[in-house]
Structures are given as C-alpha cells and as structure tokens.
Amino acid sequence: EATDKELIEKVWKLKKYFGKDLFIPGHHYQRDDVIQFADATGDSLQLAQVSAANTEASYIIFCGVHFMAETADILANENQRVILPDLRAGCSMADMANRAQTEKAWEKLTSIYGDTIIPITYVNSSAEIKAFVGRHGGATVTSSNAEKMLHWAFSQKKRILFLPDQHLGRNTAYDMGISLNEMVVWNPHKEEMEEDVLDPKMILWKGHCSVHENFRIDHVWSLREKDPERKILVHPECSWEVTQAADLAGSTRFIIEQVRQAPKGAKWAIGTEMNLVKRLIKQFPDQSIVSLNPEMCPCLTMNRIDLPHLVWALDELYEGRIPNQIRVDHQVAQEAKLAIDRMLVND
Ligand code: 13P
Ligand code: SF4
C-alpha cells in the first residue's frame, strides 16, 4: 500500500508528464487532498466555463460529480476526453428527475397550461434533463445566476417548471417578489401537484439536496440564542425557512466572497458542504467560522473522488487507457447544449 506522501508525489509527477495535455477542474466541495492538484477551482458555473474555454487539453480529469463531468463533455471539443475518477460520484439531487418522469410531467402540465410554460433546470441535473429543457426552449441555471435566468424565463413565458431542486427554485422566485401561494410543488412519483393553486407562476419539481437539507431551522434558532452576533450564511439549496432566517444566502462563489471580504474577527455560521466550510476555517484563521450544523455535512458522493482514485485514473492514462470516460450521447449533447448556451449568453 502506497502512503499518502507517495501518492501525492506520484500525482505531481504524472501531472508534469502530461503537461498542458491534461486539465483538472475541481469543485469547491472536493477534498483538500484532491483540490491541491486542481488547475482550476470553482462553483459549477465557473467549472463549466473554464472547461469550455480550455481547448488545449486532450484529457480532462473532472474532480466533481457525474453531472458536472457530463456538462464538461457537452462543452468539450471532439478531441477531448472527460474522465471521472470514480463513477460512483453521482448526485442524489440530479437522480431525483429522470427523463420518463419529466416527459410525463410535461405532458400533464402542458395539457393544463398550454403554451404558457417554460422548463428551467438547475445544472445539477442529468444531461438528459438538460436535453429535455433545451428541446422545449428552456435554459439551465446555476446557483450564481438563478435570478437573472428566471427573469429571462419570465420574459419568455408566464410560468416556469423548475427542475430538480425545489429549494433553489422557491428561494430565487421568492427573492424576485413571487409569493409562496403563486408556487406549487410537482410530485413526480404521484404525478400530480401537491397543492391547489389556480394560476401558479412557479411549478417546483419535488427534489432537494441531501446535504443542504441537513441545515435546519432549529440550528438557526439555537445559534441565534447562543451567539446572536454570528452571521448566518447559507447556500440556496437550503430550505426556504432556513434561507429566510439566515442573514445571507448565495452560491458557493458568493459564500467564499463574503468571507474573503469580511474584516478580521468576523463571525460566521455557514450552511454548506463540509469540505468548503473546513477549507474556509483553515484559510481565514483570523475569522471565527463554524458550520451551521455542528455535526458538519459532507457530500458523500463528492468525497468519493479521493487521492487513490485520482492516482488510479492518472495511472490508467499513463498506460494508454482512458478510464471512466464520461460520454454523452451526441443527440442528447446537442439538445443539452442549447439549454446551456441560453444560460451562457444570458449570464
Ligand atoms: P454551486 O457550486 O453552483 O454553488 O452548487 C453547489 C452544489 O451543490 C454543487 O453540487
Ligand atoms: Fe448533489 Fe447536494 Fe452533493 Fe451538490 S452537495 S453534488 S447537489 S448531493
């Protein structure tokens, strides 16, 4: 068994060997022992953009989850190969909407609302869902541009089907002045709406992030009681109650910016994935940073990309094999790209 030190040395060596032919993007939720090798770090939008801009590398080893690697493959040129070091690095939220469910929902919703509805999907979704959205004139959004993109969507149609994260959809629409009683939840298992709303503006897919649901309103209350000066900063994948009760809410990029700009001695309770919170604690030792949920909330699938898997992927490449290539079907990729491009031009 190689030690971590040996594995780390090996990655540096192989990175040097491949040079510009290899590009490693790393999401902010990745482990420290992986993120140290990233050529670019970012939130999901930034990573989609840097992958699109990089035309030099033949190999992209994506340190993130499956839907991100799919997006990278969709944006890559035909000579590039996208590799996910562990195929089990999925996303439970992305798995909450599949093609058959979405087609069924669309059939029912368009039979009720006719041509007044546009589908929008969070990038945390499979390529097939992005393709569905692209096919029907919609766009993708990320947590950094959701509000801008919802404004665009409402300039196209009267109402939105928002996939797959009900919380990002609800939180963003609410911030734009849409009231909760103009929103309705679509339950894909029951194939029906969960409330009776006559003329909804937002139809929210019943999906959520299993990491961010662990930040609860009782965490906010107990923190307010114990430490009222501490600012609560959360990701909009948290529930509406938590997001409303927090001081600030925004994407991973926004969270990092807030901490970066804060003065010495600032006190934060952060509601997002554990690796990012831990990294902020380390990088800003003169601020006081804790997790909003004291138990810390890791994303288990993000964590599947670890040092041994990264070394394995590099070894395979070195041996001339292409391991765990993520390849999106051509037709699906073309339609998904329509949805992604509508986001990139409007962002
Ligand atoms: P962002 O990186 O867009 O903030 O998304 C967070 C997330 O859950 C990624 O899986
Ligand atoms: Fe998916 Fe949530 Fe993990 Fe992001 S943090 S990859 S949305 S499960």
UniProtKB/TrEMBL annotation:
Coiled coil: none annotated. Binds 1 [4Fe-4S] cluster per subunit. GO terms for molecular function: 4 iron, 4 sulfur cluster binding; metal ion binding; quinolinate synthetase A activity. It is found in: Cytoplasm. One of its GO terms (biological process) is 'de novo' NAD+ biosynthetic process from L-aspartate. Catalyzes the condensation of iminoaspartate with dihydroxyacetone phosphate to form quinolinate. This is Quinolinate synthase. It comes from Salipaludibacillus neizhouensis. The lineage of its organism: Bacteria, Bacillati, Bacillota, Bacilli, Bacillales. The gene is nadA.
